[in-house]
């Protein structure tokens, strides 16, 4: 069962890691491995959400999601998107960006390093919005209660996450401008670029969120219509024929899943820039991670264990929050790649351990669904 579900992922992992060794030695191997774990950890909540929707779809649309969807996810968002980011920020053509990454890596790294403040501002703001919208939402299950409970109360204020994000961006841009001015470098004019890139990241998040909400509402409308049609057919004694409606509903499900996957893949791609600037290593690591996310989605659907480890989603979002802070800090300071990659893994591992403790506590308390034996981890 495990081999059948994760077989392709294991194969892609082996090929990707071998390719990394041939490309850049054992250091490249380590970066690709870290990127793979990063993508899996950041996208775990994506897999959970995907599984919740995918189980409602018939076998045909499940196959479409796992084939066409993989092509869009791996080749579109994980391979093409990083190239586009570098091309736009460094003002290069996509072909030129790819050519430079292979044939003139020193010049390529120089261009990427020069463009890093704008990339970091864009990505940092996008990730920060994901984290803030999560942490300001009032939810039944809380992991770090002493943080989440008061923040959930504050979250009742409209548009608070946008206000906080804009304040953080303003502080980052002003600090960057002050630092550049004190050192007399040529980066003083980039403070405005940092501000504009950060606002672009915020707008991108709001647009993607709006599209996801649109598809979700369309999906709900189609499901309601399908249920009404089935009820009317049953009352009239006619055979239930909801093929067209089911097809529309499934189609909107597919679109919704792809928009969700795109929005979640932003954090992996942007987070990858905090670890490496090399397109090849980024593509290998994120591609491996994307395959595991798809396999994990199928596994969760088949096993029906979506609610077993309830704090993993929290851990993933805290990792996103940490990455957003790291990216904003790297606008003017360098942070070691291993530290950046390890933060997410540590938070995911901690949330998994907390979930296991919670499950054991609930079992000890009688295992009832109404049990409030929440295990809240402290720092």
UniProtKB/TrEMBL annotation:
Pfam families: DUF475. Coiled coil: none annotated. The keyword Membrane applies. InterPro entries: DUF475. The chain crosses the membrane at residues 7-26, 32-53, 65-95, 115-136, 157-179, 191-215, 236-257, 269-294, 315-333, 339-356. Keywords: Membrane, Transmembrane, Transmembrane helix. PANTHER family: MEMBRANE BOUND PREDICTED REDOX MODULATOR, SLL1022 PROTEIN. This is DUF475 domain-containing protein. It comes from Streptomyces glycanivorans.
């Amino acid at each position: 069962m495990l081999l059948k579900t994760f077989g392709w992922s294991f194969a892609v992992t082996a090929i990707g890691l071998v390719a990394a060794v041939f490309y850049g030695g054992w250091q490249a191997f380590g970066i690709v491995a870290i990127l793979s774990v990063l993508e899996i950890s950041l996208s775990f909540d994506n897999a959970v959400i995907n599984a919740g929707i995918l189980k409602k779809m018939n076998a045909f649309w499940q196959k479409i999601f796992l084939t066409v969807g993989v092509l869009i996810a791996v080749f579109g968002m994980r391979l093409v998107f990083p190239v586009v980011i570098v091309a736009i920020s460094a003002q290069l053509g996509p072909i030129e960006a790819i050519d430079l990454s292979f044939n003139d890596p020193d010049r390529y790294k120089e261009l990427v390093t020069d463009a890093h403040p704008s990339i970091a501002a864009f990505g940092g703001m996008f990730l920060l919005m994901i984290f803030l919208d999560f942490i300001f939402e009032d939810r039944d299950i809380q992991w770090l209660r002493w943080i989440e409970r008061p923040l959930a109360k504050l979250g009742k204020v409209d548009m608070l996450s946008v206000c906080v994000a804009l304040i953080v961006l303003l502080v980052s841009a002003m600090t960057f401008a002050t630092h550049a001015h004190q050192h007399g470098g040529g980066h003083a004019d980039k403070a405005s670029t940092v501000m504009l890139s950060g606002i672009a990241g915020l707008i991108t998040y709001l647009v993607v969120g709006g599209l996801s909400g649109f598809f979700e509402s369309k999906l709900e409308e189609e499901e309601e219509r399908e249920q009404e049609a089935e009820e009317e057919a049953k009352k009239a004694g006619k055979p239930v024929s909801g093929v067209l409606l089911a097809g529309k509903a499934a189609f909107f499900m597919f679109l919704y899943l792809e928009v969700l996957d795109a929005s979640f893949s932003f954090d992996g791609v942007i987070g990858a820039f905090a670890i490496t600037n090399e397109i090849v290593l980024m593509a290998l690591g994120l591609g491996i991670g994307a395959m595991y996310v798809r396999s994990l989605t199928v596994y969760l659907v088949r096993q029906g264990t979506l609610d077993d480890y309830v704090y993993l989603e929290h851990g993933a979002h805290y990792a996103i929050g940490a990455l957003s802070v790291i990216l904003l800090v790297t606008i003017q300071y360098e942070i070691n790649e291993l530290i950046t990659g390890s933060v997410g893994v540590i938070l995911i591992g901690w949330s998994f351990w907390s979930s296991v403790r919670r499950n054991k506590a609930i079992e000890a308390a009688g295992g009832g669904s109404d049990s409030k034996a929440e295990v809240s981890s402290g720092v």
